[in-house]
Amino acid sequence: MREWWIHVGLICIPLVAVYLHIPPPQLSPALQKWHSAGEVFHFRGRNIFYRDSYGALGSSDVVILLHGFPTSSYDWSKIWDPLTQRFHRVIALDFLGFGFSDKPRPHRYSIFEQASVVEALVAHLGLSNQRVNVVSHDYGDTVALELLYRSDQNRTGHLTFNSLCLSNGGIFPETQYPRLLQTLLKDSSFLAPILTRLTNYVIFQKGIGEVFGPYTQPTDAEFWDMWTGLRYNDGNLVLDSILQYINQRLKHRERWVGALTSTYVPLHMIYGPLDPVNPHPQFIRLYQKLVQRSTITVLDEHISHYPQLEDPTGFLNAYFNFIHSF
Questions:
Q1: Percent helix, strand and coil across the chain, each rounded to 5?
Q2: Domain contains 1
Q3: Is residue 59 part of a domain?
Q4: Which of 16, 28, 206, 274 shows its CA 20 to 30 Å from the CA of 265?
C-alpha cells in the first residue's frame, strides 16, 4: 500500500510542477483590440494601462470609469461606445495589480494607493482643473469614496467631482459577504500562496459565475477574457495582497462611509438586486437610510453583481437619466 502512494506522489509532483509554470493564455482578438486601443503611463515606476477615447462633439463632459475586483477596465466594454456618444472624453484604467497594468509582488496594495493612481492619471491627462463624472463598480466604489473624501477635504491633487455613480460595491462592511475563496486568500497567510498558484480557469469560472445572474451568465469567450486579464503578468499571484481591501473597508469605514453621507456631490446608485456579495434588501435599505441625498436605480430582479455587463442597456438608461437630472 505504501508503495502505491509513493508511485502516485511521484506522478503528481511533476504534473503539479508543470501546471504551476503554465504560461498565461493568449489574448483573444477582442481583448487584443482593447489592449491595442490603450496607452500606458508611469506611476512611481510602474506601468498603468488606460484608455482615453474622445467622443461627443460640442461637449466638454468627461467620465472616468473605475472597475471592480478581480477584473479590469474591459468590464466597461459593453457600454464604452454609447458613453463616447454622450461624453467628450471617456477614460478607464486598470488599477495597479489588475488587467494590463503592472502587478508587482511582493507589494502592499491599498485603496489609498489606487486613489493616488487615479489622481496621477487625471494629472497626466491634463484634467486636474476639469470637473469629472465618475462611474465605479465593486472595488472601484471604494476607490471612488477615497477620491471623494480627498476632494471634500480639498487635499492637494484631488479630483473635482461633477457627479458620482456607484454600482454594487461592498461599501458597508456589515452588509458585505465575500466569497469563500476571497476570505481564505485575505486571511490565511499560510494557504494564500498555495491557493493563488493552484487557482485555475475552472475554479475562476465557477467563482465568477456565482456572482452573475442565472440568465445573464457570461459566454465562454467572456469568461475566458476575464481569466486572461487576471493571468496577464501573473495577476493570480497577487490576489491575496489585493484582497486586503476587504479588511481596509472595515478599518476605514468611518472615513469612506462618512464621505458618502456628507458630500454634496450628486450621487446615484445602480444596483443589481440578485447580488450575493451585497444582498437585497439589506444592502439597499442601509444605503437608502444612510445616503439620503442619493438617487437609486434597482435593476431587474435577475441582475446580479455585474450590472454593466449583465444589463448594459438598463445600466446606461439609469446612468443617462441620472446625468440629465442635474
A1: 50, 15, 35
A2: no
A3: yes
A4: 274
Q: Is the pTM of this model over 0.85?
A: yes
pLDDT in tens, the chain (326 residues): 455 555 554 445 444 544 555 788 999 999 999 999 999 999 999 999 999 999 978 888 999 999 999 999 999 999 999 999 999 999 999 999 999 999 999 999 999 999 999 999 999 999 999 999 999 999 999 999 999 999 999 998 899 999 999 999 999 999 999 887 788 777 766 677 888 888 899 999 999 999 999 999 999 999 999 999 999 999 999 999 999 999 999 999 999 999 999 999 999 999 999 999 999 999 999 999 999 999 999 999 999 999 999 999 999 999 999 999 99
Question: CA 306, 233, 127: angle at the middle one, nearest 5?
Answer: 65
Can you give the residue range of the structural domain that contains 245? Answer: 29-324
Tell me how far apart the alpha carbons of residues 228 and 46 are, in angstroms, rounded to a whole number: 20
- 3-state SS of 239-295? HHHHCHHHHHHHHCHHHHHHHHHHCCCCEEEEECCCCCCCCCCHHHHHHHHHCCCCE
Residue at 10 is within a domain? no
Cell numbers linked to 199: 487557482
In a domain, 6, yes or no: no
Count of structural domains, the chain? 1
Report the alpha-carbon distance of residue 97 to residue 115 in Å, rounded.
13
Residue 41: enclosing H or E segment and its boundaries? strand 39-43
Alpha-carbon distance of 233 to 74, in angstroms, equals 16
Q: DSSP assignment, residue 49?
A: E
